[in-house]
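USER:
Try writing one entry.

ASSISTANT:
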Amino acid sequence: MTQIPWKLFDKYHSKICPQPGVGMVFFPLDPEHCTAIKEMIKDVCKRNELGFLGWREVPINNDALGPLAKAIVPSIWQFFVKAPMRLRNDDEGHDGFDRTL
């Protein structure tokens, strides 16, 4: 767990969801696998009562990588979720949300 840079995520937080959960995913190069994994993540979120808010591709600079590394570099994405309504707005509820993530 790390401090979240909320200014980068303006699109994903609001008064209704001031601090969404953020997940990091390193996708394989195959677009079909990426699509399948994205759908799986959405399904897992739904089954765990996490409101799926969206995806964000992480901007990266591959200029320092050599040709072999560039050939296999993963696609890095973040996804955002809203806490389940069943969690109270207190420290215990937030701890439960962190454990669910």
The mean pLDDT is 84. Helices lie at 31-47, 67-72, 91-100.
